[in-house]
């Protein structure tokens, strides 16, 4: 299921990648954030009823939900780092503009785009952490 945050991220990141078209002289070498993975981890987990026959069902449900949260945090942290790194290259590109005014204007736009992307990613992270929690609760409810 594609979340609103995911769609927002696509829109914001596509605008952000278009940044060099308006300023700067080259694109950064990092353009595909998909290398970080899909943060919708809970959606890819087994059915919450899958541990119902385990002797330690409740504890395993909690452990699985915790692991889900760790994956989400790592994936979103990777995506944030990806955009931070790419932004550093965009800023270097801005420095090659013809005038100090164009350099300053270029940097402001890129840094604001990064802040917007980070906000979207943090919201998406929070949504996916909640999904991990829901999976864990559903799993525990299924335990005997």
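Sequence proposed for the structure above (144 residues):
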């Amino acid at each position: 299921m594609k979340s609103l945050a995911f769609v927002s991220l696509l829109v914001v990141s596509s605008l952000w990648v278009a940044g060099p078209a308006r300023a700067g002289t080259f694109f950064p070498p990092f353009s595909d954030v998909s290398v970080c993975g899909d943060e919708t981890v809970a959606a890819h987990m087994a059915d919450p009823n899958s541990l119902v026959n385990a002797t330690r069902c409740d504890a395993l449900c909690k452990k699985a939900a915790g692991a889900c949260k760790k994956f989400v945090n790592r994936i979103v942290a990777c995506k944030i780092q990806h955009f931070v790194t790419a932004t550093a290259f965009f800023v270097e590109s801005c420095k090659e503009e013809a005038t100090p005014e164009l350099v300053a204007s270029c940097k402001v736009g890129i840094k604001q785009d990064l802040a917007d992307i980070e906000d979207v990613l943090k919201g998406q992270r929070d949504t996916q952490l909640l999904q991990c929690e829901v999976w864990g609760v559903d799993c525990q409810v299924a335990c005997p």
